[in-house]
Amino acid sequence: MLFSELHQIVQGEVINLRTDEEIRYLLTDSRKANSIKGSLFFAIRGVRHDGHHYIQDLCKRGIRNFIIEKDISVPNGANLIRVDSSLRAL
């Protein structure tokens, strides 16, 4: 599935679309982000952690596709879809 097709499934808003990449892997833990091309990271907020805090590091490591709940600053080249709940979108 292409990143541009995801917003309909997750009922989100495309905030940024730089490259329409095929999504192959779903990530929820930034520490286990081994696959880069085709990875989609879900920034999930919890009681102790907020996945949004790890997006800058993931961008530096080459991840470019993200599902987010709040507005964040990311480098050019990142694809973003904003949703009400990343967990529900997952």
Key terms:
single chain, 90 residues, alpha/beta, 5 strands, 20% helix
Gist of the model:
The chain has 90 residues and is an alpha/beta fold.
Radius of gyration of CA atoms, rounded to a whole number: 12 Å
**Shape from CA axes?**
globular
Total helix count?
3
- Summarize the biggest pleated sheet: 5 strands, mixed
The termini sit apart by 15 Å
Oligomer: single chain
Give an overview of the whole structure.
With 90 residues, this protein is of the alpha/beta class. It contains 3 helices and 5 strands. A 5-stranded mixed beta sheet has the order 1-5-4-3-2. The radius of gyration is 12 Å and the shape is globular. The protein starts with a helix and ends with a helix. The mean pLDDT is 91.
SSE topology:
Blueprint: H1 3-10, E1 13-16, E2 25-27, E3 39-42, H2 55-60, E4 65-68, E5 79-82, H3 86-89
Parallel strand pairs: 2-3, 3-4, 4-5
Antiparallel strand pairs: 1-5
